Amino acid sequence: MTNLVTLEDLEAARKRIAGTAVRTPLLPSLHGDADRPLWLKPEGLQGIGAFKIRGAYNAIAGLTEAERSRGVVAHSSGNHAQAVAYAARLFGARAVIVMPDTTPTVKIEATRALGAEVVIVTPERRDTAAGELSAEHGYAFVPPYDDARIIAGQGTAGLEIIEDLPTADTVLVPVSGGGLISGIAAAVKLTSPRTKVIGVEPELAADAAESLRTGVRTTWSSTDTYRTIADGLRSTSVGVLPFAHIQAYVDDIVTVTEEQIREAMRFLGRRARLVAEPSGAVATAAYLFRQDALPAGREHVAVVSGGNVDPALYAEVMA
Asked: Is residue 2 scored above 80 in pLDDT?
């Protein structure tokens, strides 16, 4: 049986990342439905612009000094890359990051600015290249989602949500590889079992929704998932450990269209004054456009997972 993260794991992660990850506020949206109050969890306010620092720092802090001295390697479309680069720099460790050639330039440049060596590969090579570098050079691999330390770190956001809004009825969370929703769902269900946790994916990268529906981890091709504008949600399948958490704690996963994602970005920018990358806007898109698929309840929380958007794309969307 797969071991799920415990409340003790989550609390330990919170202590470990304190002072490095920001305890982001829960912001009321004045432009939501009056009968369904909307609260926003703006993880774009993290120093690296996304929630990923929570898990990356927790994972790297859990390595031995000998492991960190050999350096760390990770693969990422951008936000995990920056998180690992930043956390490694804090520990004085070398960081090598494998990134697909479809990654927005702004994320590549930000990762390099944090001191990491960036290796650009095709999308099909992203997952395997990091493992090869780890085997060749002895780097410690810091996975983006399929790891208990990563899940516990991301789950600290869920602890904060329930502490700040104990009456939350529904928490909406973006889904890619599953680390964020795994951690948040565990934190929410272990502290507020009545609260519903709903994952949100693009229609064009809905492998997790299919997996939850069928009960079997489903893999989509990168050709399929890379069609979505949400570059942070293009994983071709959820991880093994995240899927176990999803099956245990997540009530449902809904999908949103590309235009709904764009509309949510505009809503967040114009109404909430929050810059959101496409991946960070999907939870809000579900609140705005998928009420038909959401459980009944008043207080809704949408996790705005990141704000590292390509400036040209953002200008196009906002126009």
From this structure: no
